[in-house]
Structures are given as C-alpha cells and as structure tokens.
Amino acid sequence: MPLPALFLLFVFSLTGCSDSGEVIPPALAELHQRAAAGDASAQLDLGLRYVTGQGIRPDERAALDWIGKAADQGNAAAQFELKLVHSGSTAPRISRGRPTCCGNPPSNFAPAQTSLGMLHLAGQGVPEDRIEAYAWLGLAAERGEREALDWQPGLQAKLSDAELREARRRAEQYRQGPL
Questions:
Q1: Which of 32, 55, 63, 114 could form a disulfide with 140 if both were Cys (CB 3.0 to 4.6 A apart)?
Q2: Cβ–Cβ contacts within 10 Å for residue 160, how many?
Q3: For 68, phi and psi rounded to 5 degrees?
Q4: Nearest to 155 by CA among 127, 179, 136
C-alpha cells in the first residue's frame, strides 16, 4: 500500500469514524482501535471514559453504545452497567453505594465494584464521593481488576490521610458481609 494511503488510514483511525461522529483524542486512539476491532474490555473501558470524561468529552450516547457492544459480547461488567441504566431511569439508581435495581453489588465481583467506584467518582446517579469511590476501587483492585488498578493511584493522590483512612474503613465494612 502506498505511503499516502497508509497515512490516511492512520489519520482516520485517530479521528474516529464511528457512527456517532465521535472525535477520539490521540491519547485514546489505541483504546478506540481495540474497541472498534471488537475487544469487549476496551469497549467497556472506552464507554466508562465517556461516562466519567476521563480523556474525552463526556457523552452519554457514546457511553451507552460502547458499553452495550461489550455487554452484547457477554462482558459481565458491561452487563452490570446496562442493568443499572435500564432499571427504569436514565441514570443508575444507587442508594448509599448500593444499586437499588439489582440488589447489593456482589462482594466478590470486581467489575461491579469498579463500576460503583466509577459512578461515585463521576457523580453519575449517585452523589459524587471520592471516598466511596476509593473504597469500591480498592476492593476491586485487591482482586486485580485492571481498571481499578489504573484509577486508584490517581484518586489516592487527591485524598487526604483522613479521607484514605475513612475509605479503607468503608472497604473493610463492605468486605465483612452483606451491605
């Protein structure tokens, strides 16, 4: 393939050519390529970035589109996200960190813990609460959940020592049993 044609393909992959007209920042180009190629984990990651606005302009329609694609492939965390969204409101319904649509988050289901952490971090359907977000992300990170491991250090840097102690106390409480 001639060099100019390769260059154009590269540029189109960076700008995003999806149905929604989204423009993908260069820093997320690789993630977008994996998502567009059908990687369910990348689709969920990209969808959650649209929810939180991490590295891209928040966009509910694009978030639901990407999370839906991951859910269609059987990604349990994406299915959990959609279950929250489709529980009867346009935003997930959460009561003190617990989804009201589908019971307590499974104490051993790290993707659900990550999702709750991200919802609290963004204030999507719940009060924005960095301490609660850190507690849930910490539980998921203990189980090796990649996204929680990625988000936790940045959030930790924004919390005071007292806030970190409170987040760890809450995580321990959640770890002890039913909410």
A1: 114
A2: 9
A3: -60, -40
A4: 136
